[in-house]
Design a protein that fits this description.
five-stranded mixed beta sheet; alpha/beta; 331 residues; binds 5'-O-[(R)-(carboxyoxy)(hydroxy)phosphoryl]adenosine; binds zinc ion; iron
Length: 331
């Protein structure tokens, strides 16, 4: 079986062709980061227009690189939600139209299911069941995963997502959008021990997160501190350490609560080096295993949507021509 996957939920246009015996055959990604940089965040209308411009050329290239004609595919998967509605409509309209033209089924995929199954694209893939920590620009959640489509949300952010907190704090430090990776880079020059940020919601039971207080704490710290690069690097270090420690504490709790030993970490923030190092330590201590997507599949991409869509199609699922985009859609 071979399918096309399309991702357009936010500011990346991702397209991929996945084959269930040969694996990933092609993968195209266009990031709109430069387009939105001047605005300090994603401008929904500009995002939709740019997806419209890029999607067909990317699909043509992905099919060409996979040496595949649309008519030879067994289905088309697209991100149905959650995300920006105008952006989602581009991928869902193009995906369903192509499926109709090629006479194959279309299937709508939950963006976060795509993220949590992304490690399945690796040669060292986790077996079910596992606990997944999903940390992206729009979501932070801990999910108990028993199998495809068997997801129990154990906890989630009650305000900002982890990536959003990175981006907002990076902005306060004068870094460009999206600031998560830039803040992480700055933190490499930071010295530990200068600042102590809180570890929100770790002093009470439960697996929910709250990251908006860290951004406020960062704003106050930056206001009262010297305005030089070393000071900013020290603040970046302390902020990052607080987010990472909080995530570690909650993961340890989720693993203990579920009695599981396998942890999957996915979404944009899973690219963070400090998170990976500290998580490795935790899993060593707990005698468990941690799995990540390859770095290029941590952030939004079409490959994870193709993979998730393939599993959905195999279980007999497909959507009709009138399937709506779902900007808000619980996992
Ligand atoms: O999964 P993703 O591409 O998009 C969403 O679905 O939201 O995640 C993007 C988020 C952004 O907030 C970005 O700043 C963050 O992931 N991010 C990072 C790193 N790389 C990306 N945050 C911290 N450290 C990184 N290395
Ligand atoms: Zn995402």
């Amino acid at each position: 079986m071979r399918i096309l996957g399309i991702e357009t939920s936010c500011d990346e246009t991702g397209v991929a062709v996945y084959d269930d015996t040969l694996g990933l055959l092609s993968h195209e990604l266009y990031s709109q980061v430069k387009l939105h940089a001047d605005y300090g965040g994603v401008v929904p209308e500009l995002a939709s227009r740019d997806h419209v411009r890029k999607i067909i050329p990317l699909i043509e290239k992905a099919l060409h690189d996979a040496d595949t004609r649309g008519q030879d595919l067994d289905g088309v998967a697209f991100t149905q939600g959650p995300g920006l509605v105008g952006a989602l409509l581009v991928g869902s309209s193009v995906g369903r139209a192509l499926a109709y033209a090629w006479g194959v089924p279309a299937v709508g995929v939950h963006h976060m299911e795509g993220h949590l199954l992304a490690p399945m694209l690796e040669s060292r893939a986790p077996e079910f069941p596992f606990v997944a920590l999903l940390v992206s620009g729009g979501h932070s959640m801990l999910v108990k995963v028993a199998g495809i489509g068997q997801y129990e949300v154990l906890g989630e952010s009650i305000d900002d997502a982890a990536g959003e907190a990175f981006d907002k704090t990076a902005k306060l430090l004068g870094l460009d959008y999206p600031g998560g990776p830039l803040l992480a880079k700055l933190a490499e020059k930071g010295e530990p021990g200068h600042y102590k940020f809180p570890r929100p919601m770790t002093d009470r039971p439960g697996l929910d997160f709250s990251f908006s207080g860290l951004k406020t704490f960062a704003a106050n710290t930056i206001r009262d501190a010297a305005n030089d690069e070393q000071t900013h690097a020290n603040i970046a270090y302390a902020f990052q350490e607080a987010v990472v420690d909080t995530l570690i504490i909650k993961c340890r709790r989720a693993l203990k609560q579920t009695g599981m030993k396998r942890l999957v970490i996915a979404g944009g923030v899973s690219a963070n080096t400090m998170l990976r190092e500290k998580m490795q330590q935790l899993m060593g201590d707990m005698n468990g295993e941690v799995f990540y997507p390859a770095l290029e599949y941590c952030t939004d991409n079409g490959a994870m949507i193709a993979y998730a869509g393939m599993q959905r199609l195999k279980s007999g699922e497909q959507c009709g021509l009138a399937a709506p985009a779902k900007p808000r859609w619980p996992l």
